[in-house]
Amino acid sequence: MRAIRLGPRSVTALGLTSAIGVAAFGWPLLASRTSGLAHSQDAPWLFAALLPLLLAVVVATIADTGLDAKAVAMLGVLAAAGAALRPLGAGTAGLEPMFFLMVLSGRVLGPGFGFVLGAVSMFAGALLTGGVGPWMPFQMLTMGWVSMGAGLLPGPERLRGRRELLMLAAYGAVAALLYGLVMNLQGWPYIAGLGSGISFVPGDPLHENLVRFVAYVLATSLGWDVPRALLTVVLTLTLGGTVLRALRRATRRAAFDASPVFTERVSEASAASAAPAASAESTGGTPPACR
């Protein structure tokens, strides 16, 4: 069972949110030489758009599947756990233990839940670590994609055991590397403008800037992205089985997909008064009250 399933409205909301995110990450690559490039200007607008879009995902899911208070409570607990894990590494050498929890939560609770969980966890973690800045809405989007991707992996109902852990570890490693790649795309046009061979050049052909971008990633951030991927693999293989069982047990007990059933209950007094009458009728006698 999943806390948030993807219905037509949810898919539309997630697609719109992701499209806006892709545009926010990629527009500098298409900017002219005279454009003013600074995420300090567009990040507040992206953040202002992201919050209602996240709310739209939840509202669309309520309309599609009837999301209830139990799913919201689960979201709050896991978001708090993810935010608490973030300061443990604080990005030191790329070691960020919250990645493995986001991957496992997205796997168990589905892509819609995962996207909202990843974004909210990153927001709460930024408040805890003081990491609030123009990069924060981009981190929220990227972590949402990481957790959502885990929910889209195959075999959520039938694949279990070692094979599932290996699949999640492989996905976690790839997702951790891609997270660094996408976040580099957010910062590279602004912090690498030093006139070097790996700097972004506004107005240059797209393929030339992409070649410089690959060189920039290899020269600067790969030493951070690889340890993040390795830590995610290690935590998934060692703790993943226990965490998956706990998440699935909590999901079963919460019974997110269960529909309420109302049954008519007869009061004890009515049942007691009806019993002698029924007994008398069955024996052909007269009820005691009528004798």
Structure description:
Keywords: Membrane, Transmembrane, Transmembrane helix. It comes from Streptomyces albiaxialis. InterPro entries: ECF_substrate-spec_UCP037395. The chain is mostly helical and 291 residues long. The termini are far apart. α1 runs antiparallel to α2, α3 crosses α5 (111-129) and α6 packs antiparallel against α7 (162-191). Helix content is 71%, strand content 0%. The chain has a single domain (8-255), classed as Arp2/3 complex 21 kDa subunit ARPC3 (Orthogonal Bundle). The chain contains 10 helices and no strands.
CATH topology name, in short, is Arp2/3 complex 21 kDa subunit ARPC3
User: What summary fits the major beta sheet?
Assistant: none
Task: Give the SSE order as H and E letters.
Answer: HHHHHHHHHH
- Can you tell me the overall shape? globular
Distance between the termini: 59 Å
**Count of helical stretches:** 10
- Helix residue percentage: over 70%
Number of domains: 1
| Low-confidence sequence ranges | 277-282, 286-291
- Supply the helix-strand structural class: mainly alpha
| CATH top-level class | Mainly Alpha
Q: What is the compact description of this entry?
A:
The protein has helices at residues 8-26, 39-65, 69-89, 98-109, 111-129, 136-151, 162-191, 206-220, 222-254, 268-283. With 291 residues, it is mainly alpha-helical.
Offer a few descriptive terms.
disordered C terminus; Arp2/3 complex 21 kDa subunit ARPC3; 291 residues; 0% strand; mainly alpha
Secondary structure layout plus pairing:
Elements: H1 8-26, H2 39-65, H3 69-89, H4 98-109, H5 111-129, H6 136-151, H7 162-191, H8 206-220, H9 222-254, H10 268-283
